[in-house]
Design brief:
Distance between the termini: 38 Å
Strand content: 25-35%
Structural class: alpha/beta
Shape: globular
Low-confidence stretches: 232-238
Number of helices: 10
Helix content: 25-40%
Mean pLDDT: 92
Length: about 300
């Protein structure tokens, strides 16, 4: 798995490469659903050697694994390792950094962070007590014991603040200001938003902490955050006046989700065409204590639209 990721250039940091090589992923996915949740349950205790072999091979494939379904809906997964590696590279941690992870999942990402930084500097939060309980068990099995908190990730974890880095592994519709407020000045926040990855830098503002940054060029699709801030914006809603080929375009879908509730689909389409079908990296977000907005090219306009305050 690590050799395959290295062939495409991730992780670039040798410390992260060592973490992926030394933290056994199979301990964090003792069971998962084949075919993204639509197939049979594969698990480590299967008495059929062929099925057990399929489980183990899948655990080290560079693919996301559906680990928890509820009423036919995916509620937790283990992310694609190469995407995780790229995000950890982008997080740009330094020795001694305190990291908050939003979305404990299986505990695998927290284990990688703990391997790199040490257990005491890593906190992971999830709303679902079943998820945090299993994450603790998986982490203990791997020899890591970062702090695992059951709570609303949108509220951060004030008792463990301040943080130098925050990384989210669930999709949101806006950036909770609680995260910004719990960061040290100069901290970095990396979070999925719409269908992209947003990298923010935190600074001291006149009236409180602010954060601003751009999206990476990478597409990213995550399970939505449950709690105070949920992911929103269905790209299939309200498609009047937009040709079908645009609706199938990944970059236009990104703009539709990012601008949902602020721009009508035909307005988003007109902007997208006028600005020559911009890539994700041309968009950014500014987070103030009492407002936040997305923008194209320039946080001061002319192309800006509000995001829900969180």
């Amino acid at each position: 798995m690590v050799r395959g990721m290295a062939a495409i250039g991730v992780p670039a940091d040798p410390a992260w490469r060592a973490a992926f090589a030394e933290v056994p992923r199979h301990l964090f996915v003792p069971y998962y659903y084949a075919d993204g949740g639509g197939g049979r349950l594969l698990w480590s205790g299967d008495t059929d050697p062929e099925a057990r072999g399929r489980w183990l091979r899948g655990a080290y494939a560079d693919t996301a694994l559906a680990t928890r379904m509820r009423d036919g809906r995916l509620v937790s997964s283990s992310s694609q390792p190469s995407l995780m590696a790229g995000m950890l590279d982008e997080l740009d941690v330094r020795d001694g950094d305190r990291v908050l992870e939003i979305g404990a999942g299986t505990g695998y990402n927290a284990a990688l962070l703990a391997h790199r930084l040490g257990d005491g500097l890593v906190t992971t939060v999830d709303l679902d007590p079943e998820i945090t309980e299993s994450a603790r068990a998986h982490l203990a099995a791997s020899g890591h014991r970062p702090t695992v908190v059951t709570g609303d990730g949108a509220r951060g974890c004030r008792e463990r603040a301040p943080f130098d880095r925050i990384i989210a592994t669930c999709a949101l519709s806006s950036v909770p200001h609680a995260w910004v407020d719990q960061c040290a000045s100069g901290a970095r926040i990396l979070t999925p938003l719409a269908t992209g990855l947003l990298s923010l830098r935190v600074a001291d503002g006149v009236h409180g902490r602010v954060a601003q940054g751009r999206f990476l060029h990478t597409a990213a699709y995550f399970v939505a955050l449950r709690g105070a801030v949920a992911a929103g914006g269905d790209p299939e809603d309200g498609i009047g006046g937009v040709p079908r080929h645009a609706l199938r375009n990944d970059l236009f879908q990104f703009l539709l989700v990012l601008s949902a509730g602020a721009l009508e689909p035909e307005q988003a389409y007109a902007l997208w065409r006028r600005e020559h079908r911009p890539g994700r990296e041309r968009y950014g977000v500014t987070v103030m204590p009492d407002a936040q907005w997305a923008w194209l090219d320039d946080p001061g306009g002319p192309h800006t639209w509000p995001l829900p305050c969180a």
